[in-house]
Amino acid sequence: MSDISDTETNKTLIPTATPTPPPGAASASPEPKPQTPPPGPAPVQSHYSFTDSGENAPWAQTFRLIKARLRALSDKAGRRMMQRTLKIGISARIFHPETGSLGLRSKTLQYLEESIAQWVMSRDVLVFMIPTVNTNGMVHPSNVRLRDYAKHLDGLVLQGGADVSPQSYAEAATRPEWNGDRVRDMYELELLHEFIEHGKPVLGICRGCQLINVAFGGTLYQDIASDVPTAIAHVNELYDNNFHELQFPPGSSLNSLLSMQGAPLVNSIHHQAIKDLGRDLQVEALSVDDQIVEAVRYKKAPFVMGLQWHPEFHRASGAALLDCTPILDSFLRTARETRF
């Protein structure tokens, strides 16, 4: 074994050999040297174990219990809300006083056509006729507004009736008998916008379909027979027994909703019709013979649709007519989903 010189101290260092243990003897590991703790304050010992600060800690268990109870209460409230009977408003028809008449005919009357109310109530919902409001009334003043009805009701049906006034789409009546009902227009236009503003569904029937178009800047044929000479007769003495066939253009939601075979048959009881389509409206159905618009949908709301025919008359007029129950069900389903 050779010597190793330390060049810095000029001393000769001789390594010491480690004795070899006898055969069969266990090798003894050298004892570890004690570690000197780093300078500074001693660590503080916690009185809680590591697992107590995790999922099994008392505060964590309490939090989970409170969270579960809140979820259960929320689910229960949601179920009650979904099961609550729907409340659907229907706009009023208006009878204006007749000059020189007596009794009820000398008064302004607001009324509801029976068939439309019964059609909506056939799905076990509550129906309320929405009257006009007059906050400036001298005899019976009130602070109730149409927006209050939109807030508390779940949906709106605009029923049929008098012509829409040409004044409502910036035109003059071409004949005196086509002046329409401007008073009702103003009332229903406000009602329509309030329900849309509150995110509630709207279904317009006949006049209601035309009003939806006017509300979004569209115009009307004041008289189909005069303005569209090639059109079929959309109204005659047969009234609700006057029928024609429908077709659905590409992209129509009614086509998939109704899923029928062949051209469906609907009643036709209107001498006015949609001319220029309002903004953000989509045509949902057309008359087969003359392409007169028969249904529209507002594209920027969950459910705002107008039907030119009267679905409430279909059951009474025979099984051959289009079953419009899926349309009513879709309207009411949206009412349940948007009631929150």
Q: Would you kindly provide a written description of the structure presented here, covering whatever features stand out?
A:
The chain is of the alpha/beta class and 340 residues long. The chain has a single domain, classed as Rossmann fold. Helix content is 28%, strand content 17%. The protein is built from nine helices and 15 strands. The chain has helices spanning 58-83, 114-121, 146-152, 182-197, 207-215, 224-227, 253-258, 314-317, 325-338; strands at residues 4-6, 11-13, 87-91, 93-95, 109-111, 126-130, 155-158, 202-205, 220-221, 243-247, 265-267, 273-274, 281-287, 293-298, 304-307. The strands form four sheets. The protein has a nine-stranded mixed beta sheet, sandwiched between helices. A two-stranded antiparallel sheet has the order 1-2. A hairpin with a 5-residue loop joins strand 14 (293-298) and strand 15. Helix 3 crosses helix 4 (182-197). The longest helix has 26 residues, at 58-83. The relative contact order is 0.11. Residues 1-20, 24-29 and 46-51 have low confidence and may be disordered.
